[in-house]
Hints:
It is built from eight helices and eleven strands.
Amino acid sequence: MIQVEYEFISTTGKWNSICPEQHFVNNLSLMLQWSPFSTEEALLKQLDDIGDHGSRIIIYNLWLNNEGKMELDFQSDPEDIRISCDAESGKSCSSTSVSDLHLANTLQYSLRAYLSVLYLQIPENFCIWLRGRIVEYHNIARDLKYPEFIVYKPQNGGCKEGSIITSIGFLKEAPLVNIHGFNVYHRNRLILPFWNVAGSSTTRSRGIVGVLEANFIQPTHNKQDFEKTPLFQKLENRLKEMTWEYWDYHCGLIGYHATKRLHKPSQVSSESRQKHATTKRKDHDHSIEPEILKRKAGLRVNLTGPESIQNPPATTTTSHLEDQEMVLLLKENKRLYARCFEYEKMDEELNAKVTLLRKELKEAQREYGRLLVESGSLEYPKMESAVTL
């Protein structure tokens, strides 16, 4: 990796090198050789538009394909950088169908679309500029209707977090779009966008999309995939089961024939139900929420936000005890959803505080440097007067 490091001196308004001289000269020479800039001054001028912090990426010396055209398209959209439509791939960037214009497809060739979902959460004062315009942050989870939030607990993964929450639901365009996949993040960065775990040979996943942050598995070096470990395979299998289970119980909401309907819960004692739920919890890389376990026993609860919670369907054969149990589950769901919202708000506040502290630290370092310069200028006259005497 070739790099040169500078420190901005606020008193002089200049950039000074903080690397060893020979190391700095060698790296600077290589950077100028392989960049569009011929002098150090021209290179430093690129930092003028950034300010006192930030990063700037310069695309230079682009390759051409076999037809003599650039692989990147700068002409189709003056505010975007795209991968040129390749006739050999059979893809069409000019299609107007709902599926082709959806984010799941546009991010494959549009840098702006990809950057909009690159981070799961962003600090309040963070932004990405692309060709003179800010990239608008996009939260995929907000595109879902009839969402559920399922807790997944990886086994033998050494995961300090202990569990992850997977948001799953139908896209708001469903059933008009034939899109399915889970957006898997690792430490806030997108690794697998719209990962199709169910395959294309079935319709039991049409329109179902999920979002999760899997910090317990390791991404590859290029951050485009995960290492194929047993823990990764377990996650893939669980997400596949999650997809099919969600489809079986919710496909009727978007016009399909539901393969599984709400039915009367088994007439068993609460002791038996608790034992059954415990067994399920041990045998499965599981959703640990009692709502999900109850669904398998015959009771269905949508793990959604408070605004989406519906009362359980009334049946003449359902016992009063089971009705009370359902009400308690719904209340617990509301409580967990509110706690989740509080944690998200707390996370945003802490990120903002960290950013502020870093800014204050940088200002203190600059003030320290300024005071050092002033102290040096004060010591010099004293030494001179001593020599004179």
